[in-house]
Amino acid sequence: xxxxxxxxxxxxxxxxxxxxxxxxxxxxxxxxxxxxxxxxxxxxxxxxxxxxxxxxxxxxxxxxxxxxxxxxxxxxxxxxxxxxxxxxxxxxxxxxxxxxxxxxxxxxxxxxxxxxxxxxxxxxxxxxxxxxxxxxxxxxxxxxxxxxxxxxxxxxxxxxxxxxxxxxxxxxx
Length: 173
Fold this sequence. Notes:
Blueprint: E1 36-47, H1 50-58, H2 66-79, H3 81-84, E2 93-103, E3 108-119, H4 124-142, E4 150-160, E5 167-168
Antiparallel strand pairs: 1-3, 1-4, 2-3, 4-5
């Protein structure tokens, strides 16, 4: 990705693109946009009890390889985003990567997803959807051991490509 820059903020009350002049929801027309390489990164985490964390880390959960299944779920979800989010365009993804980081001190698993395409609209929603579903899959696979897991901090970290250019969050930690 190119060096990050923050696009100019839209003024408060600027019209939202998913509503027409009459206030009705519609799918944005991207037909006149230029095809560019578009990339988005999103991240989230799931906190859990120490025993649940140990179970995931060991790879010996009753339902199987929790992180392996969650990785496949995240990738699959990115491909189905337009089926889940009503006004998203179907996108031909060129790459989706789902990477997990285990934090033994805080008993949490962080999932970061990078989604890429060459097209007329961005892949932010695909990256965010992948993170949400990947973390939900961890919850589903481990809920018998720990119903108190907390999914948190799902957010866009970076996007590049298109008219608005490169954006990154100030708190990409």
